[in-house]
Amino acid sequence: MRITLLILGMLLFAGLGSFAAISYHSSEPELTTSYLYPEQRKLSPFQLTDQHGEVFNNDRLKGKWSLIFIGYTSCPDVCPTTMAKLAAAYQKLASTMDIQVVFVSVDPARDTQAKLLDYINFFNSDFVAVTASHASLLPLTRQLGFVYAMVGDGQNYQVDHSASMVLISPEGRRYATIKPKARELGQLPQITTTNLIADITELNQHYQR
C-alpha cells in the first residue's frame, strides 16, 4: 500500500512539474525579431528637448508605450529607411494601442530644433524628435543599449549608430529591444514592417496578461 501511494505521489509530482513547465513556456511571447528583457528596469532621470522646444523627460514616457530609435537627420540610409517603416507600422499599431515613436538625434551640433521639426514632419507629425548635448545623450543611450560614434572630420562627418529599437513600457521601463535580422546569410540585417508590427502587438498582449 505504501509503495503504491509513493508511486502515485511521484507521478502526481511529475505531472504538476510538466504542467508548470508548459504553462511557463506558453506564457512567453512568440517573437520574431525582438528580445523581452527578463527584468524591466526604470530609466534614470533624463532631460532632452523635442522638435517644439519642449522638455522631454521621464514623465513623457508614462501612460503609453514608447518606441525609441536613435539616428541623425543627415543619415543617408538606415535612418530614412527605418523611419519609413515606423511610419507604416504606426498606422496599424496606433489603432490598437497607445504608442508614441521617439526619434533621438545623436547629432546635436547639426540637428537644430527647426531641422528636427522638418525631418519628423516628413514622416509623421505625430512622432517625437528629441536631442540634447552629448553629456545628456550618452547616459540615456547607454541605458537603452544604444551606441553611437562620430566618424570623419569637418562638417561632413557621419555618425555610426545602433540600428535597433527599444520599447519602453507605460511605466517608463525598458521592456524589449527590437533588433535587425538577416533573412539569409550575407544579407544586410533589417527589421521588416510586418515583423515589427507582429512583435510589438505580441509584446503588448503579453504585458496585458
Along the chain, the helix and strand elements come as HEEEEHEHEHEEEEH
Tell me how many strands there are.
Answer: 10
Describe the biggest sheet?
8 strands, mixed
C-alpha geometry: globular
In whole angstroms, the N-to-C terminal distance is: 44 Å
**Oligomeric state of the chains present here:** single chain
The order of strands across the largest sheet is: 1-10-9-4-5-6-2-3
CATH homologous superfamily descriptor of the largest domain = Glutaredoxin
General description of the model:
α2 crosses α5. With 209 residues, the protein is of the alpha+beta class. It has an 8-stranded mixed beta sheet with strand order 1-10-9-4-5-6-2-3, with helices on both faces. It has a two-stranded antiparallel sheet with strand order 7-8. The protein is built from 5 helices and 10 strands, in the order αββββαβαβαββββα. 38% of the residues lie in helices and 25% in strands. Residues 4-26 have low confidence and may be disordered. It folds into 2 domains: 1-30; 32-208, Glutaredoxin (3-Layer(aba) Sandwich).
